[in-house]
Amino acid sequence: MSSDIQALVQTRRDLGILMSQLELLEQSLYKTGEEHFDAVVDSRITNDIAEMIKRDLSVEKGQEINTRREYLRELKKTLLSIKQIRVTLAINPTRKLIEKIHNKITRFCGYTVILDIKVDPSLLAGITIAYEGKYLDYTFMKKWREFIKQKLEKISLEMLEVKR
Amino acid sequence: MGIELIAIVLLSAVLAVVLAGYDQRVKEINSLKEEQEETERKARQQALRIIEDARNKAISILQQVTIDTQRQKELLDSQVGEITQQQLKEYKQYLQKVSKEIEKGVEAQAKDYQKILEIETVGAEKVVAAKIEEGYIKAEKDVEVYKQKLMDKAREEIVVIIAEASQELLGKTITIDDQTELIMQALEEAKKQHVF
């Protein structure tokens, strides 16, 4: 299950979608017909998630409701326990870029994480990371500003020298 | 008849004696009345005389008292005047004495005050000079700090202006591959800094 989750839930947005679908499935446990659990899994749940659920539960007719309910609760509990990292990018990331960032951070941390992605074009490029009370700015804008500031300070010092 | 006559004569004699006695008594009474009237008159005259004498005496006494009072008053005025004059004289002398003492005291105090004032003035001049020096140094420092603040602010503003101007140009020139590369490098840097 954990490897599936790592692949399916990489961002806070993914988490929101998955949580709402699990809610839907919980409600369908006690319904029949088109709103029955099996029908909902087939028709209203995202393919990747539906496949994971089918694989984990081996959905068959007559399977105990309690087992399904317990599975859904455990899945929600696991999802809510995953640590989140806020990252700010200068561009709207593609899915491929998100995967790259997510995989790298997960590898560095040693456990799966959920990315809370924000976009701020004024950063120009790079990334800011806010995680467990730490904030680090690795953006091009920061470096650019520091560069300009250093130049200006150098100019100011030179002007002072000339005055003396 | 004889007896009757004798009785009548006897009775007439008795009557005559009684009448004579009565007449004597009336005379005595009248005499006594006259004496009484005379005595009363004399007594009234005596009383009037006594009253007159008393009045005269009273007037005399009153006149004497008035005279004495006037004399006493004059005497008292005289004595009071003397005493007052004496007291005024003494008071004047006392005032002169006090005045001289005060004058001496004030003079001494004025000298002391002058000395203190001189000392204080010199001290105050030094303090003022020190304060002015201190204020001047502080003002110089404040000016330096203010100049530094202005410089810092100007630099910050220039940085913002240049950065914003660069944003338009650089934002368009950085490709998605460059973006990805920069992000990956940043993550590596974060790893080195033990962010994860």
Automatic annotation (TrEMBL), chain A:
| Keyword line | ATP synthesis, Hydrogen ion transport, Ion transport, Membrane, Transport
What Gene Ontology molecular function terms does this protein carry?
proton-transporting ATP synthase activity, rotational mechanism
**Per the record, what is one GO cellular component?**
membrane
Q: What is its main location?
A: membrane
What is the protein name stated in its UniProt record?
A: Uncharacterized protein
State the source organism's domain of life.
Bacteria
**Matches recorded under Pfam families:** OSCP (PF00213)
InterPro entries assigned: ATPase_OSCP/dsu
Where in or outside the cell it occurs: the entry states:
Membrane
Automatic annotation (TrEMBL), chain B:
Q: Enumerate the UniProt keywords alphabetically.
A: Coiled coil
Show the coiled coil region(s).
19-49
- Name the domain of life this protein comes from: Bacteria
Q: Does the keyword Coiled coil apply?
A: yes
This chain belongs to which protein, by name? ATP synthase subunit b
